[in-house]
Amino acid sequence: MTAEDAxxxxxxxxxxxxxxxxxxxxxxxxxxxxxxxxxYRAGQLFSWMAKGAPLDEMTNLSAPFRKKLAEYGExxxxxxxxxxxxxxxxxxxxxxxxxxxxxVESVFMRYEHGTSLCVxxxxxxxxxxxxxASTLNGRVRxxxxxxxxxxxxxxxxxxxxxVDGIVLMGIGEPLDNYDNVIRFLRLVSDxxxxxxxxxxxxxxTCGLAPRIRDLAGEGxxxxxxxxxxxxxxxxxxxxxxxxxxxxxxxLLSACRFYFEKTGRxxxxxxxxxxxxxxxxxxxxxxxxxxxxxxxxxxxxxxxxLNEVAETGLSTPDRRRAEEFRRxxxxxxxxxxxxxxxxxxxxxxxxxxxxxxxxxxxxxxVSERPVC
Length: 371
Ligand code: SAH
What we know:
alpha/beta; ten-stranded mixed beta sheet; disordered N terminus; binds S-adenosyl-L-homocysteine
């Protein structure tokens, strides 16, 4: 952990009581035994937490045990501050508040093949991408594993539906909160809890190359999604400051390593921004750099920029995106234009949190300390 990471320390690091929703079943066993309970109670508790149940609903645990859990432990599920439901496709967007009043967003989506939840990994983001709403006010802190898991548990409980897949594509850079995200992946995929298959989980990163290599060695075969957004260093550095630390060549080399180590095809996100990265030449250069740099199966997801007023950037029209896709395909690169779910509720992440922050700055309705 760097000094900077320590400075943004998580709630669990700042509170003395153990955050037991962040514990693995084995760790939980030691914890319940320390409270004078039988080890098998850990399994019951773990499965209740995966359902987002409050302590008083855990009826197969004795009342004195639940009292001890409340007294000696920390168990705070995210609270729904705001919920928007799309009239077009039923997508649900949540603004959750956390124990210290920080707010994060999650989006519940329904597809033909199942449901998927987009979760946040940090309150704010330090990466500074020029088009993104989540980073406008910087990073406030990392989320704990339980705060990430809690978004999934709370969404499953609220919708009454199973969450089949997870995308770590909400607010924050997951690989900038590495240890908590790895812990979350182990917890959410554990069959004693939510049991979401790792193959149904995607992790999206702006390109922290050394962390991509670390992830490849964790034995967690998640789909890696890399936010590329430009085919060359000059364009990419102008849009994404992280490129000055790890350039396109270094990033693609880490992606190739990930594929070689895990056998999982890497996918690339490419947000089309009018006049910045959306020309036919850009498409040609993107195809060349992927063929040259990856030399293994990959897929490009084209995203039409979701305009954020503060950034001054605009989105190209659909025709431009279609031309860009055809240009890639012509050069042998698979690409799809991502369908936008929940367009009527502004389902892309970062904007609700921003609105809340603005309300607070204007002395608005929120009585909470941060959001
Ligand atoms: N930090 C991670 C995950 C969060 S963002 C990452 O960078 O990948 C999820 C995706 O949405 C990323 O590809 C990001 O670049 C993209 N994105 C962010 N703001 C956007 C916007 N205004 N319009 C379209 N895509 C955006």
